Amino acid sequence: MQYVFEEPPFWQRVRQNPFVRFFVMFITVTLVYSAGLGSTLQLAERLQQPFLKLIGMILTLVATYLVYYGLVRSMERRRYVSELSLKGALLELVGGLGIGAGLLALSILLLWLFEFYKVDSVNDISELFATRHLPLSLGAGFFEELAFRAILFRIVEEKLGSWIALFISSLFFGVAHIANPNATLFSSFAIAVEAGILLGAAYMLTRRVWFAVGIHIAWNYVQGAVFGIAVSGAQVKGLISSHLEGNELFSGGAFGAEASLITLVVCTAAGVLLLWKSHRNGMFVQPFWKYINPIT
Questions:
Q1: 68 pLDDT exceeds 90?
Q2: Residue at 2 is within a domain
Q3: pTM score above 0.85
Q4: What's the domain count of the chain?
Q5: Three-state DSSP class for residue 87
Q6: Is 245 within a domain?
Q7: Looking at the DSSP assignment, which residues form a beta bridge with residue 10?
Q8: Which of 140, 245, 251, 263 could form an S-S bond across to 116 if both were Cys, CB 3.0 to 4.6 Å?
């Protein structure tokens, strides 16, 4: 019996092409998030109701979640969008929050011990609940993990494997921060390495975004709202008024602790540990050429 395999229609091949899927998903999700964020901030300012920033951000993230979910279902024909599965998501999110806060606190402790981090004063505890902190931390934590891990990392990994996907997603994550206030080439390099490896490994370990989202949210929030350090170059006011001084290679300078060599070592070490656990649990994906049998 002879089997005849029909080639899928052209439109179906285009829809499933990795480059097409990446650009459609990345651009669409970015537009939805940006539109929601922009309208939320404008409405809150116009009505002079700061709490609307948090409500608007939550609605924006729900819309972004649903749009991504719909794109995966329609373009990839997957019935189960595992990377956004809500089963066990709360536990992974809480675990990520704890690790993110712990890594940031350890980095600041070391900066303080080596006299690069200086406390100027302690503000009212209400600063912890200021609406400028939580909405932006939630937004950056979820959107950036969706864009750089669930979309970029995942799609690249399908064909090129985990190592190349980790390199490419980390590189683009660092480049994405080059336009931030007070950014330098070293700050972008530091983010690519310390955050790119850590967050990519967190996604690999669980194969879902929630662990990485928790780390990202806690990192941004604790850095700004608690320790009063610039978040990726953006100056903020937190519970503690502080400043970084001394050699910028170690203090991080105007960009903040993320550009510190001390933070780079701490977070990269944590990322390598998660990579080791991922490899031990068999979570690494091999590139497509590893599965091609040579003709003998």
A1: yes
A2: no
A3: yes
A4: 1
A5: coil
A6: yes
A7: none
A8: 251
The type of residue at 247 is: N
Instruction: Determine the structural domain holding residue 203 and report its residue range.
Output: 85-291
Residue 228 within a domain: yes
In a domain, 230, yes or no: yes
List, for residues 19-55, the tens digit of each pLDDT value: 999 999 999 999 999 998 888 878 777 877 777 888 8
Q: What DSSP designation does 178 have?
A: T
The pLDDT assigned to 129 comes to 82
What integer is the mean pLDDT of 256-270? 96
- What lies within 8 Å, CB to CB, of 218 at 6+ separation is 96, 97, 98, 99, 100, 101, 104
H or E element: which one contains 12?
Answer: helix 10-16
| DSSP assignment of 223-291 | IIIIT---BTTB----SEEEEE-S-HHHH-GGG-GGG-HHHHHHHHHHHHHHHHHHHHTT-----GGGG
* 235 CB neighbour count, 10 Å cutoff: 13
